[in-house]
Specification:
Layout: E1 2-6, H1 8-11, H2 14-29, H3 33-39, E2 46-48, E3 56-58, H4 63-70, H5 76-94, H6 98-113, E4 115-120, H7 124-134, E5 139-142, H8 143-146, H9 153-162, E6 170-174, H10 177-185, E7 189-193, E8 207-209, H11 214-219
Parallel strand pairs: 1-4, 1-6, 4-5, 6-7, 7-8
Antiparallel strand pairs: 2-3
Length: 222
């Protein structure tokens, strides 16, 4: 069986980390909140191409916004480096927690009998950080590297074919009712984790567990 794991709030507390980065930038550079939220998409570099919804295009700060952040001693490169540094520190701290040990045990449990591949729509630079601190997986697929949107049928098909599995033998595990709902639409088995995304608990037609733990995985025969 092929397990496709969403990296987001399924494996790491992405939303919480994102908030910390925003707060740190605000404190260090005194950026107004409005300007911060116009530049923060650099944290999630690949964006959907407006003409081809299954494809991704890299986010670039518009010139008008770039001129504004110069007044605060920043440019796109420096801002990206600040985000990367804060992101790595947050991941480094997270893997020391009891919460991560529990999730890591669940991933190791899955890898005993299945192939586990991580799906990410973070920037390419985040992949190295994840691989450095989260340990080894059977594969790590990043939307920006592939040029394919997550979620999309094209991405799921790309991964399935790369690892030579049939649709019926693929399980997508994530926390987003929308993202993982796309997988369900194309015939993949879906498991939603709802402890960081309460709304996922009420999605119909998919399997749901509160946390990614060995005990919960056993309950749904994974």
């Amino acid at each position: 069986m092929l397990i496709l794991l969403d990296i987001g709030d399924t494996i790491v507390p992405a939303t919480k980390i994102g908030k910390k980065i925003v707060i740190n930038l605000r404190r260090k550079y005194k950026l107004p909140y409005k300007l911060l939220f116009q530049t923060i998409p650099l944290m999630w570099a690949p964006y959907r191409d407006t003409k081809h919804k299954d494809m991704m295009t890299r986010y670039v700060i518009p010139k008008k916004i770039a001129d504004k952040i110069k007044k605060y001693g920043l440019n796109e490169k420096k801002l990206t480096n600040e985000i990367r540094t804060s992101f790595e520190k947050a991941i480094k701290d997270y893997v020391k927690t009891e919460e991560w040990k529990e999730i890591r045990a669940a991933i190791d449990y899955l890898r005993k009998n299945h192939k586990v591949v991580v799906l990410s729509d973070n920037p390419k630079w985040a992949k190295k950080i994840f691989m450095k601190y989260l340990g080894k997986f059977d594969g790590f697929v990043v939307s920006e590297e592939e040029g394919v949107a997550k979620p999309s049928k094209k991405l799921f098909e790309l991964v399935r074919k790369r690892y030579k599995f049939k649709t019926k033998d693929v399980v997508v595990i994530g926390n987003s009712p929308y993202k993982e709902g796309v997988a369900k639409q194309y015939g993949y088995r879906v498991v939603l984790i709802y402890w960081r995304t309460p709304s996922a608990r009420f999605v119909m037609g998919v399997e749901k567990i509160p946390k990614l733990t060995v005990e919960n995985l056993k309950k749904i025969n994974l």
